Amino acid sequence: MEALVDKKPHITANEIRKILKLKCGLTTIKSCLKKLGFKNLRFWHKPIMTKNIKERRLSWANRYKIWTVRHWKKFLFSDEFSVQISKAYLRKIWVKPENRLKPGFCFPKKQDYGKKYLKVWSCFSYKGLGELQFIENGWNRHVYKEILNQNLKREATRLIGRDFIFQEDGDRVHISKVASTWKRKNKIEILDWPPSSCDISPLENLWGHFKKRLALEKNPHDVEQFKLLAQRVWQETKVSLCEKLIESIPDRIRAVLDCNGGPTKY
């Protein structure tokens, strides 16, 4: 059984019973797996790490390793993500804790375009959340520029003040000439960001918390009703969570150093 699960971590207890022709119940199989050291966990989506990416992540972590929480309180973290309008089924895997970050047990993130998704942009800081901005007419440099134009300074001033630093990843829309020109004209200070580093950004964990809370609700299939639900769930997020996530950044940087630039547990 142990060899089978090591080879196929996504296997279910029912599939194990059929393959091994066992006559015991599913609860017994799950108990045996736990005794063997396996845990039934949702698989982690981790980006593919090349040698170059690891080196760049390591260099970035070394550059900011002496920064304290006081430094990170000045940052406005931003990103966009897609949320499924109907309930999502999160398949789990059987894995031993020491294997959690090995290549066979975490997978590159892929979008399932056969399902109905809504794209959302927002931001947050130590003091709270920005408003959700729903993106319905495609995602490109002009849409991003308009989002920044309508929201960035307003949200930053409300949450931090005029003296802030803006964080965004290296998405081609973010670094496009149109968006870059707008940021330069508006004198927006940008934090350099390493590639494939969603694990360093606390906003990814905030998105995860939001999606879990959303999954507990009865999701309407109507887009406009779903927007109202998403806004309510987002606004219910406690400021204490924002504080905790910003306070975790020094630990995230240390984790990158400990992993020699590789993926971390975050």
Key descriptive features of the protein:
266 residues, alpha/beta, Nucleotidyltransferase, domain 5, 5-stranded mixed β-sheet, two-stranded antiparallel ribbon, 11 helices, 9 strands, 44% helix, globular
Short characterization:
The chain is α/β, with parallel strands linked by helices and 266 residues long. Helices cover 44% and strands 15% of the residues.
Q: What's the helix-strand series?
A: HHHEEHHEEEEEEHEHHHHH
Total number of strands: 9
Helical run tally: 11
Strand content: 5-15%
* Alpha carbon gap, first and last residue: 30 Å
What is the CATH level 1 assignment of the largest domain? Alpha Beta
CATH homologous superfamily caption of the largest domain: Ribonuclease H-like superfamily/Ribonuclease H
- Find the structural class using helix and strand composition: alpha/beta
Name given to the CATH architecture of the largest domain: 2-Layer Sandwich
Uncertain residue segments: 110-114
Whole-number count of domains: 2
- What is the fold named in CATH at topology level of the largest domain? Nucleotidyltransferase, domain 5
